[in-house]
Amino acid sequence: MIRDLRKYSRQTGIRLAAGALLLLFILGDGLIYLIYGAGPALMGLVCLLGGMVPVVLVLLVLVLLDWITKRANPD
What we know:
Elements: H1 5-36, H2 38-72
């Protein structure tokens, strides 16, 4: 049985990142809601989303560069 360790590693990294984001948004913003109320929780959500914009932009650039590299060098 052959195992693709690169695929497994990529899949594990994606699952860890998704879990961290879920914890941050659900648990973090949920605690803000429980302690301070709905208004601050909404502002916390806006701040979390605003902080994610640069991360998403960097990831998009990296995916685009990977796509360009694979098209230019189809080895």
